[in-house]
């Protein structure tokens, strides 16, 4: 091979090397982008447009709301208080009483990852209406309702009620045979916040509405549906072992 042909061959291989290097670099950029694809578009759902405003401070409706919060707080039992303190953690494993004792941390990694991503993504949908209305919490209006640590965010809508609703509806997708028991725990997560003076009843109801809207957005997302399918497969794979253990 003469020197000219050698140079041409060398140049071709150099260009080929650069081409494959560019493909590798592109793949390293694109793959994480797909892996980190959002479930919900920013600003969705719009809680400010979706929810009615909370009762106006000083109105007869607001006075009645506070009176209801006082009544629920004072009537709570020690068992209800203990449950409320536990459910405040918002761990999905609070639902193990409905799903079964096998539903424990580290046993369902894909399911845990799914809920962790949902937890992060829905913060904006919860905080936007909170920051818009800036409603004071019951214990800020009545010091006798003060129990436990104060909360940094505003009262309306209830973030715990919203998140509890989202968790319950999604877990019922994974464990449809336990749906009613799961949904009851989700409702209690919101109600527990009234029991310990953190929220008004109207905050909790608004949270349930917002939580349902969030789940509708999630279920319409192809990215979420992909990860939900993997979580369902994980749950299904664990069921034969649990059935055999129970026999």
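-> sequence recovered:
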């Amino acid at each position: 091979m003469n020197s000219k042909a050698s140079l041409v061959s060398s140049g071709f291989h150099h260009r080929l090397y650069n081409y494959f290097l560019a493909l590798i670099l592109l793949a390293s950029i694109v793959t994480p982008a797909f892996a980190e694809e959002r479930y919900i578009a920013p600003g969705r759902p719009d809680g400010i447009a979706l929810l009615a405003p909370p009762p106006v401070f000083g109105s007869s409706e607001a006075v009645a709301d506070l009176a209801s919060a006082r009544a629920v707080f004072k009537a709570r039992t020690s068992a209800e208080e203990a449950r409320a303190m536990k459910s405040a953690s918002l761990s999905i494993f609070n639902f193990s009483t409905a799903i079964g004792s096998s539903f424990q941390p580290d046993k369902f990694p894909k399911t845990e990852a799914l809920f962790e991503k949902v937890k992060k993504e829905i913060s904006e949908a919860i905080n936007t209406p909170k920051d818009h209305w800036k409603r004071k919490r019951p214990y800020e209006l009545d010091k006798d309702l003060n129990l436990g640590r104060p909360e940094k965010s505003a009262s309306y809508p209830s973030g715990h009620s919203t998140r509890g609703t989202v968790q319950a509806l999604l877990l019922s997708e994974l464990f449809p045979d336990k749906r009613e028991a799961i949904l009851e725990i989700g409702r209690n997560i919101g109600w527990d916040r009234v029991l310990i003076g953190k929220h008004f009843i109207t905050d909790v109801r608004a949270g349930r509405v917002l939580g349902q809207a969030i789940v509708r957005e999630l279920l319409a997302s192809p990215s979420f549906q992909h990860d939900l399918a993997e979580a369902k497969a994980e749950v299904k794979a664990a069921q034969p072992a649990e059935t055999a253990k129970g026999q």
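Residues 87 and 189 are 6 Å apart (CA to CA).
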